From TrEMBL:
InterPro entries, per the entry: F-box-like_dom_sf, F-box_AtFBL13-like, F-box_dom, FBD, FBL13/AtMIF1-like, LRR_dom_sf, LRR_FXL15/At3g58940/PEG3-like
Ranges where the F-box domain occurs: 26-66
FBD domain span: 373-448
CDD domains: F-box_AtFBL13-like
Record-given protein name: F-box domain-containing protein
Organism in which the protein naturally occurs: Coptis chinensis
Length: 455
């Protein structure tokens, strides 16, 4: 790359000249910000550009090191070379390492360090317990595919007074029975114990106590116990829980429902809640057996993923969410082959427009509809993505139209079925919803990329 080219303006036209060095004339902080996105090897190479650049890289505040860029590290240990680089970069505040070899112990006593991200590549990164942990300014700790002792995590929670963000993704913990995260200052927590690329990991009893936590993301199996205590500051939660039959102890349905309800009650302070399809199925099944002792009174924004068979299960949760404002439902093709209900894009359109067609949808024995007797006085917006044209989806919309007194807009993103089927599905759904007695007037029904209709 020619570093000597510059952009000049002459008579309103842009011209390339040779008089200046554009990048070198930038402010040093801007140059260091640009270099912070490069691997340390590429950053060091810039020292060959000119005298000004010779030692500029040594002022970097972010160290990026990816072992995969150095294939010879598998044959020759890199620890000494990395130690040398670290000793030069005394102003570093963020360290991002992707490696599978031994980690320099000096990192855990780096006084100026604010962000530490460690990720295992070509397998796991085995992390030995350091002799001491002294990171007074550390705010964010991210561990991905790391094998470690839980003592190290506890040391970081107790000896890093500024720690606000903790992320544990696909980690293995040695000599551990309970995964306990207890911190009075933690604000963001991510725990992922299974991944479609890396498989599942050992299952532990999980206990979380964090009174200042505002964001929680969990992808885990409900094993013996999953405890959420004192999350009084929680604002947003993303929950993806699964049941693994090999690790769930045998018990009555009431005992298992109580365990699941305790997890749900631990999230009751959240203003925004996102649930996976498996979590929705698990929670709704438990609510049919045992009710919650408290409601989601703070919940304003609800996001869910559901299969066609479970589209109406969220009604169980909506009964305990009286102040919800926005509802986003994403349909998935999971278990679609086992769906037994109607598919409206597969119906004869002339039959759908007959007056008797609507009465066959709202059957008197539809249990979910009969139980849903509360009003949704604050629900303003409903969006369904990947709308499959299933009977359960339409039934859900009918209930919301009848119970949501403040509803103003319904947005539907049709699934990628045959184009002519999508057009027919749109008209059939609109015709059905037109016949529904509504709690709110002037509702706009938008079919994204098609048209906006008035109900």
């Amino acid at each position: 790359m020619d570093m000597r080219k510059t952009l000049c303006v002459t008579n309103g036209r842009h011209q390339l000249g040779q008089s200046e060095d554009i990048i070198s004339n930038l402010n040093e902080d801007v140059i260091l910000y640009i270099l912070s996105f490069l691997d340390i090897k590429a950053a060091v190479v810039t020292s060959l550009l000119s005298r000004r650049w010779r030692y500029l890289w040594s002022s970097l505040r972010v160290l990026n090191f990816d072992q995969r860029f150095y294939p010879w590290f598998k044959k020759y240990p890199f620890k000494n070379s990395l130690d040398k680089v670290i000793n030069v970069l005394r102003n570093v505040q963020e360290i991002h390492l992707k490696l599978s070899s031994e980690l320099p112990q000096c990192i855990f006593n780096w006084k100026s360090l604010r962000v530490l991200k460690l990720k295992g590549v070509d397998g796991f990164l085995w992390l030995r317990n350091p002799h001491s942990v002294d990171l007074p300014l550390l705010k964010s700790l991210h561990l991905t595919r790391v094998v470690l002792d839980m003592t190290l995590v506890n040391d970081c929670l107790s000896k890093c007074p500024a720690l606000e963000v903790l992320s544990l993704k696909c980690c293995e913990f040695m000599h551990l029975e309970d995964l306990i995260v207890s911190s009075p200052q933690l604000k963001k927590l991510v725990i992922i114990t299974y991944d479609q690329n890396y498989g599942c990991f050992k299952h532990y009893d999980t206990k979380i106590w964090a009174p200042k936590l505002t964001f929680l993301k969990v992808r885990d199996y409900i094993s013996k116990r999953f405890s959420l205590d004192n999350l009084s500051s929680l604002e947003s939660a993303v929950i993806d829980l699964k049941v693994n039959e090999h690790f769930v102890p045998l018990g009555t349905k009431q005992e298992n429902a109580k365990r699941v309800i305790q997890v749900l009650e631990g999230l009751c302070h959240a203003e925004s809640l996102t649930l996976s399809a498996s979590s929705l199925e698990m929670f709704s099944s438990a609510l049919k057996i045992q009710r919650m002792s408290s409601q989601f009174s703070n919940l304003r924004h609800f996001k869910l993923t559901s299969s066609p068979n479970d589209a109406c299960d969220l009604l169980q949760l909506l009964m305990d969410s009286p102040n919800i404002k926005t509802l986003l439902l994403k349909m998935t093709w999971t278990n679609f082959n086992s769906y037994q209900g109607r598919l409206y894009w597969d119906e004869v359109i002339t039959v759908c427009f007959q007056p008797s067609f609507y009465s066959t949808i709202m059957e008197a024995n539809w249990e979910e509809w009969l139980q849903f007797q509360c009003l949704l006085e604050h629900l303003e917006s409903v969006e369904i993505r990947n709308f499959l044209g299933c009977e359960n989806e339409v039934r859900l919309l009918i209930v919301l139209l009848q119970k949501a007194t403040a509803l103003r807009k319904i947005k539907i993103v049709l699934a990628q079925v045959w184009p002519h089927s999508r057009e027919k599905m749109m008209w059939v759904v609109w015709k059905i919803l037109q016949r529904v007695p509504r709690a709110s007037q002037n509702i706009m029904l938008e079919f994204v990329n098609f048209r906006v209709l008035k109900l």
